[in-house]
Design a protein that fits this description.
Shape: globular
Radius of gyration: 16 Å
Family: Belongs to the tpcK family.
CATH topology: Alpha-Beta Plaits
Strand order of the largest sheet: 2-3-1-4
Distance between the termini: 17 Å
Order of helices and strands: EHHEHEHE
Structural class: alpha+beta
CATH architecture: 2-Layer Sandwich
Protein name: EthD domain-containing protein
Organism: Penicillium arizonense
InterPro entries: Dimeric_a/b-barrel, EthD_dom
Oligomer: single chain
GO molecular function: oxidoreductase activity
CATH class: Alpha Beta
Number of helices: 4
Number of domains: 1
Helix content: 40-55%
Strand content: 15-25%
């Protein structure tokens, strides 16, 4: 934790991706949130490096609601958000994590995903 920041600080890696063509949204979200998620949280890199894992499911209904705001909607089906305390550890363990999950991920997700890396600054909640 940064001594000048009273809040716990994480580095956030957000991976944006689209589902594979030929897979329904329902099948994609069901597989990703159960089978794939269980694989992810059971592998060593996950338990060593990650502090939080969030799946964001961009359903068509929610995307339509977002378009009501008059802003451009990101053209992705999902986003996996990982909170890590140490970026170097995350990078070092990523090849092992990709080896364990890569085949299943490529079965349901178009590769490669897009990534957005940031530092969290918690202002509320």
């Amino acid at each position: 934790m940064d001594s000048e920041n009273p809040y716990e600080s994480y580095i956030t890696a957000s991976f944006y991706f689209k589902k594979q063509q030929g897979i329904s949204h329902e099948e994609f979200y069901r597989h990703w949130s159960t089978f794939h998620a269980n694989m992810a949280i059971s592998c060593k890199p996950f338990t060593v490096s990650f502090r939080r894992y969030v799946q964001m499911h961009a359903t068509q209904e929610l995307q339509m609601k977002g378009s009501e705001l008059g802003m451009e909607i990101l053209d992705y089906d999902a986003c996996a958000v990982f909170h890590v305390r140490n970026w170097d550890t995350f990078v070092k363990l990523m090849p092992e994590w990709q080896k364990e999950l890569g085949t299943d991920a490529a079965r349901i997700m178009q590769m490669p995903p897009k990534i957005f890396v940031s530092r969290d600054v918690v202002l509320f909640g």
